[in-house]
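Re-running the complex after MR caught last week's input typo. The corrected sequence lines follow. Everything else is unchanged.
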Amino acid sequence: DIQMTQSPSSLSASVGDRVTITCRASQSITSYLNWYQQKPGKAPKLLIYAASRLESGVPSRFSGSGSGTDLTLTISSLQPEDFATYYCQQSYSTPWTFGQGTKVEIK
Amino acid sequence: QVQLQESGPGLVKPSETLSLTCTVSGGSISTYYWSWIRQPPGKGLEWIGYIYYSGTTNYNPSLKSRVTMSVDTSKNQFSLNLSSVTAADTAVYFCARVTPMVTFNLDYWGQGTLVTVSS
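Corrected-run output:
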């Protein structure tokens, strides 16, 4: 199985901050990486697919980059509605695996 | 707008079989893959497997011996059976659509249903 490790596991940030979350794969996954946002009690929501492609309807302050083993999610200017937990997920090979999550909290 | 809705018992006894159904509305179940994902309380996400509308399946090896998925295109539904459950199977179970857009991604999700394994 491909292990996905996110860092940090949690972070505190203020509205307007630039936030970067990293996802490291245990082997190359090229660009087979998706990012999801999950709020408490809700289902995950797809933000970014194929490492850098913005899902329809997702604000442009979200962006993804990278390929291979190190990929990142960036929120350019954190908004109040962005406080949530973020997960990366590889679909390079089955079993598909998720990172452990990064909780973004209000500073 | 595609919508997914999980249904099934919220309480299952140890050693019994967990059975859930996902009903798809606003679109056809055909031509897509459909997946189950679970999340133990306070923990991360675990992919259980997927089923193609034709019936082809791919299961997580960690659960493969206990998982069966099926699809009913006439009802626009797909289902999950997980046998011999234990307390470790207590989780919120989500169904989701898999879209092969460049990569496979989970673009529509159900709201999730909590299944507790307890006697």
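None of the earlier attempt is carried over here. Chain A has a mean pLDDT of 97. Chain A is about 0% helix and 50% strand.
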